Structures are given as C-alpha cells and as structure tokens.
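pasting for ref
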Amino acid sequence: MDMNQYLEVFIEESREHLQNVNDQLMRFEKNTDDLGYVNEIFRSAHTLKGMSATMGFDDLAQLTHKMENVLDAVRNHQLDVHTEVLDALFESVDALEIMVQSISEGGDGQLDVKLLVQKLQCIVAEEPVAQHAASSIEYDELVQTLLSQTADQGFNAFEITVQLERTCLLKAARAYMVFDVLEQAGDVIKSAPTVQDIEQEKFESSFIVILVTNESQEKLQASIMEVSEVESVKIAAVPVKKETEMEGLVSPEVAAAIQEVTVSAPSKSPVEEKRQLSNNKTIRVNIDRLDSLMNLFEELVIDRGRLEQISKELNNSELDETVERMSRISGDLQTIILNMRMVPVETVFNRFPRMVRQLSKDLGKQIELQIVGADTELDRTVIDEIGDPLVHLLRNAVDHGIEMPQARLENGKNEKGTIRLKAYHSGNHVFIDLEDDGAGINREKVLQKALDRGIIDGKTAETLTDKQVYELIFASGFSTAEQISDVSGRGVGLDVVKNTIESLGGSVAIDSNEGYGSRFSIQLPLTLSIISALLVQMSEERYALPLSSIIETAIVQPKEVMHVHGQKVIDFRGAIIPLLDLKELFTVPNSVQDDHYSVVIVKKGEKTAGLIVDSFIGQQEIVLKSLGHYLPGVFAISGATILGDGQVALIIDCNALIK
C-alpha cells in the first residue's frame, strides 16, 4: 500500500497529538493527583504509536511504546510521579517532535533514541507494566434472561477471554478482527470492557466476550488463534438457567427491554459500529489552496474597483444597481475568505509553556506562565511571523524580568514569578500583552547604557520621560545584560522584535514599574492581504496610506506652520509634531500651489507626524502587492496596489517616516 498519500495527514495529526501531550503534561505537573491528564496523554501517545507503526516509522513507534509503559504504570498506581519521570516524558516528547519535523522535511524520521528508551525502561524497572488480566464481566439480569432464551433454542453460551501479545501496537484493530471471527460464529451478547472502550483502545491487552453460538469450543479456539498477535484464548461454558426457571425472577423493566432486543447476528462488529458524532462538519484544507483562493479574490477586488469607477463615469442606473449588488456580494465573500484564513493565536502560544518550564529549570527560577485569550484569531500570514518576536520577549522576561526565588523573597514577593500572556481583539486590530511581575526596568541603568553607546547625549537624557527611556531598549544592539547569554537574545537586543512587528504593520509599546514588573503591548492588524487605505493625490501620482496608521486628516493654513531647527512643525492638540512634505521625500514634481496644506496625521506607537499631500481622494479597500525582488528596500514604501482604472498606487510605510 502506498503510504505517501497519507503522509500529510500523518504529519498534521502527529503534531496535534504531540501538542496535546505537551499541554496535558504541563497540567499534570501542576496537579499530579489528577490521573485524568495521564489518561489523555496515554490516548494521544497510543494513537501516535499506532499511526507511526502503520506508516513504518519504527523509532517513533518504539519511543511512544516505552512512554506508554511509563504512563500505564502511573495511572495504575504502580509508579510514583517525581521530577525524573516528568523530565523523561518531556524529553521523549522533544525527541518525537524532532522526528516528526524530520518527516515533514522529507526525512526518514529516524533518531537515535536508545539512551532515552533505556531511561524509560529503568523508570519502570525494565518490566512492561500493562495489566494482562481483564476485569471480570457482569452477568446482570438482562444478560441472564437473554442467555436463558437462547439456551431454550439449543444455542451454546461461552465466556471467551482473549489475551493479545504484549507488543501489539494496534490493539483496536486486532480486537476488531477477533470480533469479526466471533460474529461469523454467532452473536456477541456483552463484552468487558465495553465495545466503545475497546474501539477507543481504553483497555490493556485482554478483553472478555459473552458469545451465543452453535460452534464448538474447539473450533472457536482455533479460529480466534488464527488472528495475528493473539497470545492466548480461554473459553469457558456459561451455566444458563432455562427460561422456565427465570419466570418470576425477571423485573418488568427487563421484560420490556428484552422485547426490544433481537439476538440475530449483527451486520457488523460492534467495534465497527458508527459513533454518534456531533455535527462536526470541518475538513482539512491545504493552506496553499487558501492562498490561491486569496490571490484570485484579490484580483476580483481590483476588478470590482474598476467596475465601480466605470459605473460612476457612465452614470447608468441599471449598471449602478448591478455594481452595487456585486460589491455587496463580493464584500460578503471577502469576509468569508478572510475568516477562512484566520487562525487562533494558540497555534503560537501552545509552545510557550514548555519553553518557559525548561528555561525556568535552566536558570533555577520558579515561573508560572498564564495564557489568556488563546482563541483570539489572526490572519495566517501574521501568525507565521509573530512567533519569533514573542519567543524573544518571553525569553527576555524569563532572563531579565523575573528574579531569582531568594531575591523575590527578600523583596517581599512570592518566590514564584508570574508571566501573563494575553491576546484580545480591539477594532480591526489584535493586541498581545506580555506582562511580568519581575524586577521591572532600571531607568538609570538604561540611560547610562544609552549614553555609553552614544544613542543619546547627556542633554537629551535630562529631558526624557520614563516611557521614552524604556523605549531606548529597542535601539539597535542595545542590551542591559551584564553577560551575554543563550537565553534572551545573545546580546542582540529587542530592535529585531520591534522591526519585525512594524514590518507587519503593527507597533510595540513598553511600560514598566521598577521593582514590580514590565509590560510589552503589541498591536497587530487582523490581516495583511486586503487593507483599508486612504488614497491621496500628489501632482499626477496617487499614493495609499493604511488607515491603521492614520489618526485624522486636517487642513492647515500656512500661518499655522512653525519652524524648529529647520523642520516644519505644527501644534496638534497641544503637542508639537513635525510636518513632512511627501512630494519632497519622494521627489514628486510640484505642479500644484495651494493656499493651504492638506495634512494626514499619522502615528507610530506614541509618536505622531503630519504628512503633507496635495489632496485627499477617499477611503478604499486595496490589495497589498509586494514590489518583488526588482525593487528591494525602497524607502518608506511597503508595497503597491492596482487601482480600479488600472494604475498603480504605491503604499506608504508610515512607520519608516517617523523617527
């Protein structure tokens, strides 16, 4: 059988199971008395083992099998949970993730796991801990009555105990094959564990079945033993009372139930019966298909803009109505497509608890990571880029923010530090806040480092507010670390974080209270593909300014313009902000001389500036297109868009204009 067609599904589901194991392990570590977490971990590990064995990834299957032994010992109270056990399980998950990643990159998924396997074997004293005896089966009133009726018809009743081999990887599949043999011979009345539990592999390595049949005991024994990986079969005749002996012993409820029961052979094995699923109508879609769909829709948006312009020029009522209806429908379609591309930020957040746990152990700190709003959704393109900046900020909080336990106790704090990661929607943006209750930022230390590096001069240092001082840590190469470490950036600083976030059309702000902690607040657009923008005119050229960067538009009289150190500035709501003439910046020929300035007030974090243009055209949804490799690094231009009349408008990067 060609397994390549299933490879993509295997990789996707393996990652889901590994993430579930990670999550449940983190929860179990906090509450080792709750074995429900262990059962969840066991199920995911067992499923992963079966999938790996089926696909031929032996190292994966072997390691998960040894993990199962440890988990089985824990949930059967045969093994006390301690740090070494949890560390070994976490280490196993790391190895499994490496193997799955290798497979996703076209590798064979092989990894030397001998030492790890030995460690797991030593934990369970090198003995498999699975229980090989099934729980006894209960002969309730209903079962006894059914058996008595079949006995009167000349059938035999057997209690059959099937023991699978200890090394069996796909227990549910083997159980199905056994049930298939039994159903060909007669009727299964009851099983222990239940059919549902057997189907979900919620049993050890044996199960019991009550069978009504005409076959002999010897023939049944031989037929079942022909099934692969069946270690042994024990068959015992069930002593059954005749139906006349049951008279007067059957309750009315059971009598009513019996009338609804037929003992004819079922059409298929109980293991194969369909589950009552909830109305879950989701399907897996390759992200490349969504990208293709998005690209096609972007072209539709461009054509929609062209039709709207033609409609205005022709002033035809029927065309106007048609275009208006098409715009409304395409708007709804746009919403649906954008929603299809939205991904919960938990896909990024999920890896952080493990990371913080390991960093805490490495640094000898006690840290609790709290995650809020993990179901908040972002466009996939934003999700793909935001992971690394968040990792850097988290490492920074663990390394520089949270103090050592003894230092926290001396300062009257709980020895365990807290880092809170929160995501939430606000308007057309998503905010991600990273807050810690650590040492905060030392203003004087930051100022001194900035002075030493020549980032600011002494005169400027005296005028800076606390917030402006904190923002200095975003300067290129800035770091307050006494020693460069592998934990929080190797001395690179946070400038990379800021640049990445701003390249996504977002911003990052910082606030701190020395001795009590710091907070980084990241603002991100919901999507990058189709954005709302203000179109402006400059001579014969048109430009687009993202609405997410605009505060408002204004008409400024020449007399309101002041000059400070050769820079045009205006008083905007009590604050002096610089004026930038875009025609001068982009060397646009100046053919328009107005008696006023048309100004777009834009922001970048806490900073504000006014951009001078010739006129405002209006708001429009535009498709963001890259300039490609032919025009890399163009100053203050983030891309381009095609307008309704086919002309190209450059999209201005407001963040690059504000220093």
